[in-house]
Amino acid sequence: MSKTFYITTTLPYVNADLHMGHALEFVRADSIARYKKLAGFEVFFNTGTDEHGMKIFETAKEVSKSPKEFVDNAFKRFKEQAKSFGISEDVHYVRTTDERHEKSAQKFWQKVLDNGFIYKKNYKTKYCVGCEEEKTESELVDGKCSIHTNRKIEIIDEENYFFAFSKFQGKLLEFYEKNPEFVIPQFRYNEVISFVKNGLEDFSISRLKNKMPWGIPVPNDDEHVMYVWFDALTNYISTLGWGTEDEKDFDKYWKEGTPTQYCGKDNTRFQAIMWQAMLMAADVPNTYQIVVNGHITGEGGIKMSKSLGNIVDPKKVSAEYGVDALRYFLLREVSSFEDSPFSEQRFKETYNANLANGLGNLVSRVMKMAENNLDEPVKISEQEDTQEFFDYLNKFEINKSCDFIWSKIGEMDKFIQENQPFKVIKTDKEKGKEMIIKLVVNLYSVARMLNPILPETSEKIKELIKQNKTPQKPLFARKD
Q1: Model-level pTM?
Q2: Across residues 1-29, what is the average pLDDT?
Q3: Structural domains for the chain
């Protein structure tokens, strides 16, 4: 029986382009998916788009398009942007407007309703459309959302369906206690427990159709559509066929596997608490693990914003420096779990130091010696012992796995500097050849470890070794 692994990103709304935080989440999830394939797992990597809700409805209206026309165009743009991050070709894309997803979400709703965890009541609340989230007075600053300060807070006063979230406090705490590594890192796990211990309040899971028609219809009630979060969260199992006639992927990757979710820290409550309670309410097994990223900030920890002019577009970075250069920075130079700054100057400095002058220069030096002094390509076994590297990835400490790779690059540079095989070969041909062969073997090991980190570069290095050729142009051209 083959080993299986399921991993998913959260689904971004399609009303705006992907930003650096999205790139961080997507690239990290992709690197773990690639690593698992390298380790012999059969992988299901899921991502996609959240396409319902007031935010989408309003944006479509502003550009004079129907919501469906708007999201169809936005999804095409989303896939193009995801490609600029080097996402695997075999990724599974889910859309919350897919017919299969809508049917699955409706079945999920019905299951939760049948189990007694959905009810109807009148209520009044303050709501931020930008966050698609209810806000308490303590979360508002001068009567506005602290994140979307340019938006007015909406007042919702209507009869809605509610999810009996409050009934799951004990069940959730028991689940967390039995699964101490459910949320990574540990301090996010502690935050989750603290939030649940403070008490849970039932939340609205529908909207009146005559006020907000863009959503999945509530089963057996034509007057309501599902609240966007309740609908969107079910994508993690609808993409696997849950609620359809064919649930083999759900059984294989979720029920019998270790379903893993990546999210940003502002999403932790939805993923690690609300979604887990919803799964319990529908008698569906819980997520195995949730990995939480910090935020990408401007220099000095200042939040990125258009008004401050410190936003860096990941697509432009990828276009100028290359996909793998963007991936390198996000996977090594950004903390695995804490907030980290991003600036164009810092990016250029690390690019020149560690890619152009580091990895790129090493590949050129080693392969030039090999091409000039070896009669044929070095024969190398595909399997290399990189357990320490794998151990870091198993703990989602991707930046430490990158540090491990670059420590090997540093060791090779030091070996060349101290032993100078290009000089030795002139006086002792056999010894010089041995040195060069050793360097090529070690370079192949580096290339193999780079597979999940810098996939394009990994393949280029392997191909150079197989052909015993020096690169015709630098792998990473220095930027002045």
Answers
A1: 0.91
A2: 92
A3: 4-294 (3.40.50.620), 344-467 (1.10.730.10)
